[in-house]
Amino acid sequence: EVQLLESGGGLVQPGGSLRLSCEASGFTFSSYAMSWVRQAPGKGLEWVSSISASGVSTYSADSVKGRFTISRDSSRNTLFLQMNNLRAEDTAVYFCARVNSTNQYGPQAPWGQGTLVTVSS
Amino acid sequence: AIQMTQSPSSLSASVGDRVTITCRASQGIGNDLGWYQQKPGKAPKLLIYGASSLESGVPSRFSGRASGTDFTLTISSLQPEDFGSYYCLQDYNYPYTFGQGTKLEIK
């Protein structure tokens, strides 16, 4: 069974940092691109960042560019999101998702259960 | 960035009704569009990919169609378990963009 398990969320002050992890199991992690998507409380879904299967190519939303960095460690089957200089508007549930295709573009499936990040003083 | 305009933002329908949700892309995206269902407090779930292909395990009452830059998700006969929010997502190029979402309520 394909599973994605996020961790690392929590309460952080504005300007602080946090690193999210997403542990994958049940599939060949190194063969798939991966993504982070977030959802602010009561709001819609917002794509945050994606990384190619090899890890060579990364893509990020303008809202997080220069502050968030996506990476992966295929030896640990784990996806990361390093979040620096956090702002109140980054408060959201962060989901990881597999890009369900043979290239770096495609639908997102499955998704993890999400981890909540709260940025507040 | 490609903008996805989704409508309606909310709708209320009865069991057995036919329901249609629409997304319009601001430019051509081929058929690179997916539809996702999200129940409160849960992760989104892929229903349709490639505009019209049904994800494995998804009931056949869900269908998708593309016409140029317009995309529709149809539920042929609404069931009680279909409540929740629905989102389109263009995966044609980065940055990926979601529609604003449609909250579906069962009357």
Summarize the structure in words.
The complex is a heterodimer of chains A (121) and B (107). Chain A is built from no helices and 11 strands. Chain A is mainly beta. In chain A, strands 2, 4, 5, 6, 9, 10 and 11 form a 7-stranded mixed beta sheet that branches. The mean pLDDT of chain A is 96. With 107 residues, chain B is mainly beta. Helices cover 0% and strands 50% of the residues of chain B. Chain B contains no helices and 11 strands. Chain B has strands spanning 4-7, 10-13, 19-25, 33-38, 45-49, 53-54, 62-67, 70-75, 84-90, 97-98, 102-106. In chain B, strands 2, 4, 5, 6, 9, 10 and 11 form a 7-stranded mixed beta sheet that branches. In chain B, strands 1-3-8-7 form a 4-stranded antiparallel beta sheet, with no helix packed on it. At the A-B interface, strand 5 and strand 10 of A face strand 4, strand 5, strand 9 and strand 10 of B.
The shape of chain B, in one word, is globular
Total count of helical runs of at least 4 residues of chain B: 0
Which term fits the overall shape of chain A? globular
Give the low-confidence spans of chain B.
none
Tell me the structural class of chain A: mainly beta
What is the count of β-strands of chain B?
11
Strand content of chain B: over 45%
Roughly what is the average pLDDT of chain B, rounded to an integer? Answer: 97
